[in-house]
Amino acid sequence: MSSTLGRADATAPHSTSHVVAERIRSFVAGERLKPGHRLGREEDLAREFGVSRPTLREALRLLSSEHLVRASKGPGGGIFVAATPEQGIGLSVSAAVATMLDAQSIGLDELLETRMLLEIPLAGLAAARASEEDVVVLRALVERVNAAATDHERTIEADARLHHLVAQIADNRLAGALTGWIVDVLQPRLAAVIQPAVVASVIADQHRDLLEAIVRGDPAAAERAMREHLVYLRDVVSAIEQSAQ
């Protein structure tokens, strides 16, 4: 790590370990360090920050809980970047949402409603902002989704990639990241719940409508197509849950 980071300020309002963790977090983000980048050995980092090794270990524990760093022992070992801050946040959010689902603190219907709040306006933005290259990639993906219509697992996986791509084309990084985190947690559970009920041809038609709206550069039509798709999924899940009661 760069020696320009300086020593941790023990007079800061937060504990010294939190200050050190924030310094490392900011350094990783500011330098755009990639996963696998070696930050240094524990003793070197402790000396650089002017803190004890127990204090540094607590800072690293905090960062490890955020999936940002990992420790490796042996020759060539040390502290390594495990994920970018954005990736780390995503892993933490996904884990928290998955835990809430498993504990039944929230339901699939609530996640689908949240997707509607995010993805409907994102579809409109995608239609307004899509480049010719975006359209080519999107069209190819829709064709792959349709080609997988007889394979339920592949259809669900391709559907997830499609939603990721639409959010990416919308070019709103925060909303896109939130959407991605929710989709990653939700799709496997949707696949398990709605497999007997979803008609692949219905999803294919909905994807085609969304694609055509984005190709035309029609935000209102893109929002309608995304709403129809997500409402369909929500209604299927709701019907299954009611029949199970």
Find the CATH superfamily of the largest domain.
Answer: GntR ligand-binding domain-like
Averaging pLDDT over every residue, what do you get?
Answer: 85
Quickly count the helices.
10
Contiguous uncertain segments of 5+ residues: none
Q: Would you state the CATH class of the largest domain?
A: Mainly Alpha
Briefly note the structural class of the backbone: mainly alpha
Helices and strands, in order, run as HEHHEEHHHHHHH
Radius of gyration: 22 Å
End-to-end distance: 57 Å
Report the principal-axis shape.
elongated
- Cross-sheet strand order for the largest sheet: 1-3-2
Share of β-strand residues: under 5%
Tell me about the largest β-sheet.
3 strands, antiparallel
CATH architecture of the largest domain: Up-down Bundle
What percentage of residues falls in helices of 4 or more residues? over 70%
The total of beta strands comes to: 3
Reported by name, the CATH topology of the largest domain is Four Helix Bundle (Hemerythrin (Met), subunit A)
Multimerization state: single chain
Count of spatially separate domains: 2
